[in-house]
Amino acid sequence: MTAPAVNPAAAANQPSPGTAVVSTPVLTTAVDGVVPLLSASVIICAYTEERWNDLGLAIGSVHGQRYPASQLIVVIDHNDDLLARARAAFPDVTIVANAGRSGLSGARNTGVALATGDVVAFLDDDAQADPGWLELLLGPYGDPDVHGVGGAALPGWPASGRPRWFPPEFDWVVGCSYIGLPTTTAEVRNPIGAAMSIRRSAFDQVGGFSDGLGRIGSVPLGCEETEFGIRLRRDVPAAAIVYEPTAVVAHRVTPERATWRYFRRRCYAEGLSKAVVARRVGKESALAAERIYMTRALPRAVARDLRRPARWSRVGTVVLGVAFTAAGYARGSVAGNPS
Asked: Which of 99-113, 203-217, 317-331 has the least mean pLDDT?
């Protein structure tokens, strides 16, 4: 819903060839009268040419920000054809190969090692950021205790629309914000990965995203943001991570992800990933947000949909979604690292 990683502190803090550097305006959001001057590096990770059109739209949405990024880095995850194609098509963008282990965590860590901005923002390759996304993400950093800010990822369903059986409480399955998250700016355990940002210095303090977590190609693992958020607040007790629901991206949902088969796989994979996080940071930290979700958001969803016979299929989805996730967690608790 959320280790031997690349250490960004070891990377040279200089722009790489092809990095687009632009002047950065002063933010107007402030805390206690302090107006920060912040630069932002945006990282997009990509692994397949099947999302080529999506990648172009994602890059275009970054170029269209009201508050311009000082740096845009696209990390290609062990795909030489895609790497060459992207370098040819986007000469004004820093295009690099994943220097670490295959998967989203390694790709993100590669980008972080090259990032020169005060804040590092991450945008999925199949997401498009609203023009005000970056500006709104950076606002809360006026508070020096804020080390991470996440935005809202809204699902862009295929032409057939949201499946009737798919409750919005499970939109995390397709990498999007879901009912159960705050509706106003509030502190959270971890952000949604498709539209999040982290203060650059946080990576120097606690390291990068953990290998063994996060999506690897089309395998729907996750929770690298969960583990990072817990580790950040463990090592930097004053650190806060904030959810800013007005910082919006549209996250495309493919027809394949709108199927029952994908729903089942993703729930099971979430359970596997949460089991790994629980072993690394402890059950209390790993599952605290899930307990609230299970005892508040899901019972409300069931009560709401039971009142409308047309939505009874959603009630069944809630029950089975919990069962699939629990099964994955049980398997992961005894089977070791899912990767």
From this structure: 203-217
Count: domains in the chain: 1
Q: Which residue has the tokens 């949902």?
A: 253
More confident: 159 or 29: 159
CATH of the domain at 121: 3.90.550.10
254: nearest Cα among 122, 159, 324, 170 = 159
* Sequence-ordered list of residues with C-beta below 8 angstroms from that of 158, at least 6 positions apart, any chain: 253, 254, 255, 258
Residues of the domain holding 37 = 8-258
For residue 198, list its beta bridge partners: 120, 148
- Residue 74 falls within a domain, yes or no? yes
Residue 303 in this model has a pLDDT that exceeds 50: yes
**302 secondary structure, DSSP code:** H
* Position 290 in a domain: no
Task: Evaluate whether residue 146 is within a structural domain.
Answer: yes
Contact 62, 94 (CB under 8 A): no
Least confident piece of the model among 84-93, 155-164, 240-249, 330-339: 330-339
Q: Cα 188 to chain center, whole Å?
A: 13
Give the position of tokens 């194609």: 85
> 266, 320 in Cβ contact below 8 A?
no
- The secondary structure of the chain in percent helix, strand, coil, rounded to multiples of 5, reads 45, 20, 35
Return left, alpha or beta for 214; rule: phi > 0 is left, psi -120 to 50 is alpha, else beta: left
Query: How far is the C-alpha of 305 from the C-alpha of 311, rounded, in Å?
Result: 5
Q: At what angle do helices 283-292 and 224-235 cross, to 10 degrees?
A: 120
Tokens of 254: 């493919």
Long-range contact list for 333-339, CB < 8 A, 24+ apart? 333/275, 333/278, 333/279, 335/272, 337/212, 337/276, 338/212, 338/221, 338/269, 338/272, 338/273, 338/275, 338/276, 339/103, 339/211, 339/212, 339/213, 339/216, 339/221
The reply to whether 224 falls in a domain is yes
The per-residue pLDDT of the chain, averaged, comes to 86
